[in-house]
Amino acid sequence: MSATGVSFEKSKSWLLVDCGEATQHQLLRADLSPYHLSVICISHLHGDHCYGLPGLLASMAMSGRTDPVYLIAPQAVVQFVMSTLALTQVTLPFDLHTMAIEQTDQFISLEFCYIEIIPLKHRVPSFGFKITEALIPRKLRIKQLHSEGIASGPHYNLLQKGQDVIYQGQRLAANTYAFPSWRPRSVIVCGDNEKPSLLSSYCDDIDMLVHEATFTHPDLMRVGTHTGHSDAKRVAQFAQQYQIPALILTHFSVRYHGEGMLDVLENEARTHFHGNLRLAYDFLVLTVPKQLLSE
């Protein structure tokens, strides 16, 4: 069952990609609180990616959340959720803003993050999500301000907040006199996808790729290449080609369940990818380091 949380330290709000069965139960043991869950992205309509959603929303209602929640998902998933809530007579105390992917712009701007929707290839329409942080403290270019004779005052604070100001009849552009403290961090979290190359135009500036590796390459060749899934070799080669710093593999076939059974997947991926590689497990927490910027 798939569920991946993404959070940034400057906001209590966080984002969830996919919501397989028992997601709400696992969240009871995680550091991320459903009360602060603001955005839910569902990659496709298969049950291992969305069956946990009605229960999670009901639990969020019981937690007392009143702030709006955004659901970004295929139209069929939106219909499934709304029908289930109606049939079970669940009344949400918060506004659920549903955004059907088929009718939504590929770029969505929210308070704490930006989301790009990436079409993938699976047996049904499937999507990935590029999530980029938005709330980054800004630093003033103090030397430049002083060199131009711009004395300190309330306008400094406004510039630092990203607002243009008028100073002694002159317009000061915030982007000229202030800059982000660090480079925005980005991660791509994918649904099921048999063609990693579809991510090519989105990978130049990402810090981490979360992608399924359902099979090893030899096993995929045996079961057929059009399963709608990827193998560890193909994903690792792609991540190496685009010099992605961190690769997280998920969504493993049940044939690899059991002690030591995932080693063959990890070994195959490490042969082709030389960055930070992890195989996902429940409650895995990873931190993307900041790349600080200077004047």
Give the uncertain stretches in residue-range form: none
Strand order of the largest sheet: 6-7-8-13-14-15-16
The CATH architecture of the largest domain is 4-Layer Sandwich
SS elements, strand count: 16
Overall shape: it is globular
Major sheet size, sense and barrel closure:
7 strands, mixed
Distance linking N and C termini = 45 Å
- What's the CATH superfamily of the largest domain, by name? Ribonuclease Z/Hydroxyacylglutathione hydrolase-like
Instruction: Report the average pLDDT across residues.
Output: 96
How many structural domains?
3
What kind of oligomer do you see? single chain
The number of helices is: 10
Catalytic activity: Endonucleolytic cleavage of RNA, removing extra 3' nucleotides from tRNA precursor, generating 3' termini of tRNAs. A 3'-hydroxy group is left at the tRNA terminus and a 5'-phosphoryl group is left at the trailer molecule
Active site: 48
EC number: 3.1.26.11
InterPro entries: RibonucZ/Hydroxyglut_hydro (IPR036866), RNase_Z/BN (IPR013471)
